[in-house]
Structures are given as structure tokens and as C-alpha cells.
Amino acid sequence: MKIRIAALVSLFLLLSCKNEAQTSANLESDLTTEIMKKENIYQFKVKDLSGDEFDFSSLKGKKILIVNTASKCGLTPQYKDLEAIYEKYKDKNFVIVGFPANNFGKQEPGTNEEIGAFCQKNYGVSFPMMSKVSVKGDDMCELYQFLTKKSRNGLKDSEVEWNFQKYLINENGELEKVISPQVLPTDPEVVDWISK
């Protein structure tokens, strides 16, 4: 009788440990799924160059090219190509959103007003331009934290290499591609993505 009771107690303990381990594994799996849940860009609101709120949820259903810009960079002439593809595709559910940033070689020292005037005068920029932000480091803006962290965007970790890095967002607000700063906006890799 004592042996039977001991065996039942052992079996009970074994089963309760197994259930506890399964519960722990399930919780861990749920937590990992929660952490890796892909966010989308529609949750973000930022300020434009005029200081007005820009709500990304207003772009639902559009392809979005996000680019960090600078006025005094060797890549600054890309503004011309950005404006050209914006003009060509803006009526086909496509938009470009520019984010001036002073993170690389202090090549965007101007105020929001000065940046706006420079873009308009030199390149006739008509696509939405946001207030100057930080795209790397401890003060990185929240939107760029989403763009650069796989745990938030569900695609990949990346680092903004330099001015004019491009992030391509699909019609569901999800990050789909990261394009190097040196790749021109008119490159087939970008244009084919916009037009497909």
C-alpha cells in the first residue's frame, strides 16, 4: 500500500512538473510571438517642416519611400531624382516622405524653414518633408527605431549608413526593402518596386 501511494505521489509530481514545463514553454512561445509581431507604419505621427502633424495612417493603401536627406551632401542631387519619380508615380498610390537629418558629417545644419527653402529653390521638392530628426544613436526618432529593428518591423535589422538611405514600405504599411544611400531613386530596383 505504501509503495502504491509513493508511486501515485511520484506520478502526480511528474505530471505536474510536465504540465508546468509545458505551460512555461507555451508562455515563452507566446512572448516570442508577441515580441516578433510585425508593426506597421500607420501607428506613427510626426511633424512636417511647418510643424504640422503628419499622420502616416493617412497613407494607407499607398507604397511609401522614406528617405533621410541632407542639404550639404555629395548625394544631395538625389533630390532631383526623388522629385522626378514622385511626379511620375504620385497619382499611382505612391508617395515619398523625406526626413532631414544631421547625423552624418553635420551635412544638414539648417532649420526646418531653411531646409524647406533649400529644397524648393534648388530641386522644386513637392513631396512631403518632415521636421529634422535623428536617424541613429541614442536620440534616434521612434519611426527610425521601427525601420531599423527587426523586432519591430518584422523584416530585418539595419543601420542607416549615410544620407539618402531608402526604406520601401508596401501598401499594408510594412517594411519591404532597405536600399543603400548610393542607389539612385531612379534605379530599376526602386522603380520596378514602385510600378509592380
Describe the 3D structure.
- With 196 residues, this protein is α+β, with helices and mostly antiparallel strands.
- Helix content is 40%, strand content 15%.
- The strands form two sheets. The chain has a four-stranded mixed β-sheet, covered by helices on one side.
- The radius of gyration is 24 Å and the shape is globular.
The portion of residues forming beta strands comes to 5-15%
| Low-confidence segments | 31-35
Q: Tell me the series of helices and strands, N- to C-terminal.
A: HEEEHEHHHEEH
Mean pLDDT: 89
Tell me the number of helical segments per DSSP (H or I, 4 or more residues long).
Answer: 6
- Which strand order do you get reading across the main beta sheet? 4-3-5-6
* Major sheet attributes: 4 strands, mixed
State the helicity in percent bands: 25-40%
Cα Rg = 24 Å
Number of strands: 6
Q: Termini, distance in Å?
A: 76 Å
Shape: globular
Structural class: alpha+beta
Summarize the structure.
This protein is of the alpha+beta class and 196 residues long. Helices cover 40% and strands 15% of the residues.
Please give the structural blueprint.
Elements: H1 2-36, E1 45-47, E2 53-55, E3 63-69, H2 78-89, E4 94-100, H3 112-123, H4 142-148, H5 150-153, E5 166-169, E6 175-179, H6 188-195
Parallel strand pairs: 3-4
Antiparallel strand pairs: 1-2, 3-5, 5-6
What features would you highlight for this structure?
single chain, 196 residues, alpha+beta, two-stranded antiparallel ribbon, 40% helix
